[in-house]
C-alpha cells in the first residue's frame, strides 16, 4: 500500500480535515502520481455536503488533478517517471460497452468509475479524489500534460475545460459558427476562450456587469447582461449553439428564441428538473434541448492539446489546502475569478 | 371571383354551418382545385373553438385537402385540368429566407401562410380552408397525388403523414433503426406504418389495450400498454428515436431512459409547456428533446411518393360534411380509427 494524506470530510456537516489514505500498490497498468495541484469544482462541494444523497463518508474530493509520475507498473510504456500528467473525473469504466468502445467512457453503460466517491469494482471501496498527496490510476485514464501548459492553471481543463470543449466539438462548432455561452464562471470563462479559439462568433450571457467586461477580455465578441431590459431582443434566431453553464435549474424559454433552426441548447451545469419548456419554442423552428457530461478520455486529451496549441488555461487563484473551507464558501458565493486550485505542496506544511 | 360554399363557424362557441365563400380569380401561378375530400385534424377543432386565442372568425377549417384541378393559370405547366392533387397546411411563404430556400417552408422566418386561419399578405384577408367546395392555391404549394393512392385515405397524409415522416427522415431512420411511436391515433398509426416501411424496428406505446392490438396489425414489432405495471422496464437504452404524437402536455421523463446515447425525443403533438424535464436524464447519456412541425412542400411530396410506393394510406372513416359536429366530438373522445375524412360531394346535398 502507498500511504498518503488526503483532505476530506468524515461525515455530513463536518469540515474538511487531514485523513490518512491508502492507495493500492500499482499493478502493471497503473501509474503512481504525486499530485501537484487539484482544482476545486462545484461538484466537490455538492459531494462534501451530500447534496445529491450519494456521498459515502469519509469523502476526499478532487477530480482536476495535475501531478508528476512517481512510478509506473510498466504497462505500455506510455508514461515515464517524471512526466507531468493529469487525471480528470474518471479512473475507470467497463471498457466493453458501445460508449466505452467509442471513447465516450463518461456514458459507460454501467457508469464510469468516478475519481471521487466512485465505487472501485475490484476492491468494493469508495474512490478517494485529488485533494491528496498521491493517487494510483489505470494508465488508460491518465492524460499527458502537453508542454507549455502551466500546471496549476491547466488543472481546471480536466473537468471544466473538457465539459465545454466536448459539446463544442460534438455540435461541429468552427469558423462561422455562432455560439452563446450562458454563465461566466469556471466553465463559462473557459467556454468563451475555447469557442473563440475554434473560430466561433461567441457571445457571453451573464447577470453580472463586471463579468460581462471580463467576457470581452476573454475573447467574446459581445457580452450581454441578461438582467437588463430587452437584453435579448435583437438576438432572435442568431445562434447555432447555446451552452448553459448555469449550475442550478433555470428557465430555458427566454433563450430558446435565440436559436436558429436545428440549433441546440445544451445543459452542462444542472442535472435537476428544469422548469417547464414551451413546446412551441422547440417546434418553431425545430430546436433542441440536450445535455452533455464532461468528456471521454480521448476527448480530454484533445482538450489539453487544443488548449496548449492555443495558449488557453483557466484563470485560477491558487490556495493552500488548509484554506479549502474558505474557498468552498467563496465558490458558493461566486467570489472567484474563475477557479480555485489547491497547491498540494501545502499538504505537508507544519508536519 | 370564384364562389363556393364552405363549412365554418361564425364565432366562438357557434356550430359549423354553410357559409358563402369567395376564392380569388386564379393568377398565372395559381391552380383552381375542386375539393373531393378533406381530413379532420385535431388542429381544426382547436381553431374552431379558438383554443389558442388566435382564431379569426368566420373560420373555415381544413388542411388535408385532396381534389381535382378545375383550371390553371398557366404557370409552369406542372398541373393540368383533371389532375388529382393535394394541399396541406400551407399555401404560401416568404420564399426568400434560409428555411424557404432549403425547402422547409414550415419554418419560414416570417411564418408560412397557413391554409386555414392564416393571413394572406397580398389581400390582408384570413385564409379559408378545405371544408369547402373549391380552393385556389399557388402551384408551388400544390402536391401531386401519385397513382395508386386512394384519394380519401390519402388526405391525412398531407398533415398527419408528413408530420411523422419529416422527423423520421430528418433523424436518419432506416433499416436497423429502433423507433418508438408514442400514442396511436391519427399521427401515430401513420407513424407506425411509415417507420416500419422505412425498415425500422418500430415499437408502439399506448394507454389503450385495443390500440396496442391495432398497432401490431399496422406493422409495429411490439406494442406496449404504458399503464401496465413495469411496462417500460426492459426497454432502457433501446431507441434511437421516440416520436411523441400525444396532443397534450405530458411527462417526458419516464420515456427518456428508453433513448440510447444521442437519441432524440420529438414532440409532434403538443406546443404547450411540458412538465419539468430532469436534466440528468438528458445528460446521462447525452439525449435530446426536440420538436418538429409538419414538413416542407418537397418533404410532403416525398411523403406522398413514399406512401404510394409502399401502399400506405390512413385508416379513415368518411363522413358527410353535415356530420362534422359529431365527428369533432368523436375526435375529442378519441372515438375514431383513425381519421375522419369529409366527402365534399355532400356539400351540395339537398341544395
Overview of the molecule:
The structure is a homodimer of 351-residue chains. Chain A folds into 2 domains: 2-157 and 315-348, Medium-chain alcohol dehydrogenases, catalytic domain (Quinone Oxidoreductase, Chain A, domain 1, Alpha-Beta Complex); 160-291, Rossmann fold (3-Layer(aba) Sandwich), CATH 3.40.50. Chain A has helices at residues 42-49, 98-101, 151-154, 160-170, 186-197, 209-218, 279-283, 297-310, 324-332; strands at 2-8, 17-23, 30-39, 65-72, 84-87, 90-92, 113-114, 134-138, 143-144, 178-182, 201-206, 222-225, 239-244, 259-267, 288-291, 316-320, 339-343. Helix content of chain A is 22%, strand content 26%. Chain A contains 9 helices and 17 strands. The longest helix of chain A is centred in the last third of the chain and has 14 residues, at 297-310. Chain A binds chain B through residues 98-99, 104, 106-107, 109, 170, 237, 249, 253, 261, 264, 267, 270-280, 282-293, and chain B through 98-99, 104, 106-107, 109, 170, 237, 249, 253, 261, 264, 267, 270-280, 282-293.
Please give a quick description of this structure:
The first copy, chain A, has 351 residues and is of the alpha/beta class. Chain A has helices at 42-49, 98-101, 151-154, 160-170, 186-197, 209-218, 279-283, 297-310, 324-332, and strands at 2-8, 17-23, 30-39, 65-72, 84-87, 90-92, 113-114, 134-138, 143-144, 178-182, 201-206, 222-225, 239-244, 259-267, 288-291, 316-320, 339-343. The radius of gyration of chain A is 20 Å and the shape is globular.
Radius of gyration of chain A: 20 Å
Low-confidence stretches of chain A are: none
Question: Average pLDDT value of chain A?
Answer: 95
- CATH architectural label of the largest domain in chain A: Alpha-Beta Complex
Q: Work out the largest interface and the residue count of each chain.
A: A-B, 36 and 36 residues
Total strands of chain A: the figure is 17
Amino acid at each position: 500500500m502507498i500511504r498518503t494524506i488526503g483532505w476530506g470530510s468524515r461525515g455530513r456537516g463536518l469540515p474538511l480535515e487531514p485523513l490518512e489514505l491508502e492507495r493500492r500498490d500499482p499493478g502493471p497498468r497503473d501509474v503512481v502520481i504525486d499530485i501537484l495541484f487539484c482544482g476545486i469544482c462545484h461538484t466537490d462541494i455538492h459531494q462534501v455536503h451530500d447534496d445529491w444523497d450519494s456521498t459515502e463518508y469519509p469523502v476526499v474530493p478532487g477530480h482536476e488533478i495535475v501531478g508528476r509520475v512517481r512510478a509506473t507498473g510498466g504497462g505500455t510504456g506510455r508514461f515515464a517517471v517524471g512526466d507531468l500528467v493529469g487525471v480528470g473525473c474518471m479512473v475507470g469504466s467497463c471498457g466493453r460497452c458501445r460508449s466505452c468502445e467509442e471513447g465516450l467512457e463518461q456514458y459507460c453503460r454501467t457508469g464510469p468509475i468516478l475519481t471521487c466517491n466512485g465505487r472501485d469494482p475490484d476492491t468494493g471501496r469508495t474512490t478517494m479524489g485529488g485533494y491528496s498527496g498521491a493517487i494510483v490510476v489505470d494508465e488508460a485514464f491518465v492524460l499527458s500534460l502537453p508542454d507549455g501548459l502551466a500546471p496549476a492553471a491547466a488543472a481546471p481543463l480536466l473537468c471544466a475545460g473538457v465539459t465545454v470543449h466536448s459539446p463544442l466539438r460534438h455540435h461541429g462548432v468552427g469558423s462561422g459558427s455562432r455560439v452563446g455561452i450562458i454563465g461566466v464562471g469556471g466553465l463559462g470563462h473557459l467556454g468563451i476562450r475555447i469557442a473563440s479559439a475554434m473560430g466561433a462568433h461567441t457571445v457571453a450571457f451573464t447577470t453580472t456587469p463586471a463579468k460581462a467586461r471580463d467576457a470581452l477580455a476573454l475573447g467574446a465578441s459581445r457580452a450581454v447582461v441578461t438582467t437588463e431590459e430587452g437584453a435579448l431582443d435583437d438576438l432572435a434566431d442568431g445562434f447555432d449553439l447555446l451552452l448553459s453553464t448555469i449550475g442550478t435549474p433555470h428557465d430555458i424559454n427566454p433563450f430558446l428564441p435565440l436559436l436558429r433552426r436545428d440549433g441546440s441548447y445544451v445543459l452542462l451545469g444542472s442535472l435537476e428538473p428544469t422548469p417547464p419548456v414551451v413546446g412551441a419554442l422547440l417546434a418553431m423552428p425545430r430546436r433542441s434541448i440536450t445535455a452533455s457530461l464532461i468528456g471521454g478520455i480521448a476527448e480530454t486529451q484533445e482538450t489539453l492539446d487544443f488548449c496548449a496549441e492555443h495558449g488557453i488555461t483557466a484563470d485560477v487563484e491558487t490556495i493552500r489546502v488548509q484554506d479549502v473551507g474558505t474557498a468552498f464558501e467563496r465558490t458558493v458565493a461566486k467570489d472567484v475569478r474563475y477557479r480555485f486550485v489547491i497547491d498540494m505542496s501545502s499538504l505537508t506544511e507544519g508536519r
